[in-house]
Structure formats: structure tokens, C-alpha cells
Amino acid sequence: MKMIISAGGTGGHIYPALSIINKFKEKDKNFEVLYIGTHNRMENEIIPEQGIPFKSIEIYGLSKSLKKNINTLKCLVNAYHKCIDIMKDFKPDIVVGVGGYVTMPVIMAAKKLKIKCVIHEQNSIPGKTNKLLSRGVDAVFTSFKESAKYFDKNAKCIYTGNPCADNVINLKPIDKEKLRLSKSKKLVVVTSGSLGSEALNEKLTDFFKLSSKEDYEVLFITGRKNYDEYIKKHKLSKNIIIIPYLKNLAALFKSADLVISRAGAGTISELITAKKPSILIPSPNVADNHQYYNALDLVNNKLAIMIDEKDINGKMLYEKIKDLLNNSDEYKEMINNLNNHEIFSSSEKIYKEIKEIVNDVK
């Protein structure tokens, strides 16, 4: 099979695309793939490093500036025509869009050439690009069951989950001692994404201070850009371990007793697959407030707790965590619901669905 896949801008789009590619490589020895991404975002480095053929297009998201938007539309038209040429040359059996505005000209070109195409949505509330593209694609794969209602009424929506979680299924828990943590003590992991959040970090400081005499440990991941300043500013007790970043976060989740985190789609899928109770603090600075709705889906199924960032204070969080770690009924209910939550390989399901779609052509 020959596939063109496109995703861009953030790891939340790129890593699910990589999971899909890896599944096809595992299943099909004749598989060929070409990745189309933006010329100036992180996929421009990540994908070639993986040895995956890569073509870049110049494309930008819409802004509040009329002048910039005129240039954006010109770039969209040029990118569309470039994608037409790429597809005529590569001759894919399927075109897959996995999020980000870069997918707009890619999927548009596939539709124009009558090539089978599908999209995957990671968040519970779809982005504007995927909402538009859902009209006329062969399938819309969703990470959340509730997402189907936001797409075009004629779209064929299929609940597949998020491929980001696939590597968690057979992942071994991280060795806590390598992070200067005790094997025997309970562990609370606190993270706010790879870049972190200075505002949230400051709000959490009082919680860390109140936890200084507790028997549990806290691993606090500040985010790379905030680490140096934070450790200069705050001196915390030895049961609070502070690091800037951890590459294998999913393995850490498996070793934790409780996770405090943002509510990005990839993180949520990893928490569910790792079966870890969490307190989710959605970022207020994301499009369409989608992290709130991601978290709400888990809260409605009693898989997690959600607290708005504006409502966070150290004492409240300290009391809540102390209660949860003492095996409160709420904590036990989350554990029970997570253990009973259906876990399956998302990329495996996507592989099977795409195979059916492609085979319908032939």
C-alpha cells in the first residue's frame, strides 16, 4: 500500500501520525509512505530524523491581521497545487490527515483527484480544519466517542481512540530509583506539558510546601523553559523532586499513584491506558477551550477529577491529594472505572479501517 500522511504543528498531531505509520510498517512489508508537513514547524525536523520521506509546503494558520490572512490564502492555493503535483507523482492509495492546518491543502488535493482520504481527530472538540474536511472524506476517526456530533452530519465517524496511547499498553513502569525516588512511597507526578506553564507552576508552589512533611513524594516537571528560574526562586523539601523534562512520560505515569496534568489529547489517552487516576487542569490558552472538553469527557465517566486553573490554590489541592492518597471512595471509584475501561490498539483499528477503505476501491 502507498500512503500520503499529513500532520503538523504540535506533537499532539505528529506522534499519532507516527504511530499509524509504524503500524503499517509492521503489518505490510510493501508499505510506502510519504509525509507532507509544514516547512517551518517541528515535523520538518522530527519526520526526516525518523527516516520517513518528507515533503514540505508553505502554509500558515489564520490570524487577526487581514494582510497576513491574504498571504495565508495565497500560500493555501500554492500548497494545494503543490499537493496535486506530489500526489500525481507518488500515486497514493490513501491520504491520511492527522491534524493541523497543513492537512487542509493535502486533503483538498486528494478529494480533487478522487483519492480515498480519511482524517483523525485527537481532541473531543474538533478543530476548524477537521470540521471543514469532514465533508466528503471516506472516514473520520475520533479519539472520543462523543466527538461524532461535531462533524458534518453525513460524515462516517469511527471511534478509534488515540494512536499515541498504543506504546503505553506494553510499556514497563519507569524505575523510580533512577529519578531519586523511593520504591516504597506513594508518588504524585505533576506536569504541565513539555514547555510547562509559569503561571500554573507558581500556583502549585504552596501545595509543594504543604506536602513537605508528608510521607508521599512528588515529582514535579516544570517544563524546560521554566526550570532554571523556578529552582532559583524556590527551595523545596527533599520529598519534592524537580526536573525540567522527561522524555518517557508514559512510563512514569505507570509508576505513579496520582497524576496532576494538563488535559492535552495525547496525555489523556496515555493516562487512561496506564490506568492512572488524575487531577486535570485544562490549559485556558488553547483553541476552542478543547482541553476543558477533553477533561470533561473523563470526568463524566468518573475516570478523573478536573479543576479550573483559576480555582487552584495550594491548600485546596493539598487537602484533595491527601484525601485521594488515603484511598478515599472517590479514588477507589476512579481506579475501578479505569480498570474496567476498554483498552485497545488504536493504530491497529485504524489500520484495519484503512485497509477496508482501500480494498473497496480495487
One letter per element, helices H and strands E, the order comes to EHEHEHEHEHEEEHEHEHEHEHEHHH
Q: Percent of residues in beta strands? A: 15-25%
The backbone outline, from C-alpha atoms, is globular
Amino- and carboxy-terminal Cα gap? 12 Å
Report the uncertain regions.
none
Helix/strand class: alpha/beta
Number of strands: 13
Rg, alpha carbons: 21 Å
Q: How much helix is in the residues? A: 40-55%
Mean pLDDT: 91
**Strand sequence of the main sheet, in spatial order?**
3-2-1-4-5-6-7
What summary fits the major beta sheet?
7 strands, parallel
Structure commentary:
This protein is an alpha/beta fold and 362 residues long. It contains 13 helices and 13 strands. Helix 1 (11-27) packs across helix 13 and helix 3 (66-90) packs across helix 4. The mean pLDDT is 91.
What is shown here, in short?
The protein has 362 residues and is of the alpha/beta class. The chain has helices spanning 11-27, 43-49, 66-90, 103-112, 128-133, 198-210, 224-233, 249-255, 265-274, 290-300, 314-325, 329-340, 346-361, and strands at 2-6, 32-38, 54-57, 94-97, 117-121, 139-142, 157-159, 187-191, 217-221, 240-243, 258-261, 278-280, 305-306. The mean pLDDT is 91.
Give the topology, please.
Blueprint: E1 2-6, H1 11-27, E2 32-38, H2 43-49, E3 54-57, H3 66-90, E4 94-97, H4 103-112, E5 117-121, H5 128-133, E6 139-142, E7 157-159, E8 187-191, H6 198-210, E9 217-221, H7 224-233, E10 240-243, H8 249-255, E11 258-261, H9 265-274, E12 278-280, H10 290-300, E13 305-306, H11 314-325, H12 329-340, H13 346-361
Parallel strand pairs: 1-2, 1-4, 2-3, 4-5, 5-6, 6-7, 8-9, 8-11, 9-10, 11-12, 12-13
Helix pairs in contact: 1-13, 3-4, 6-11, 8-9
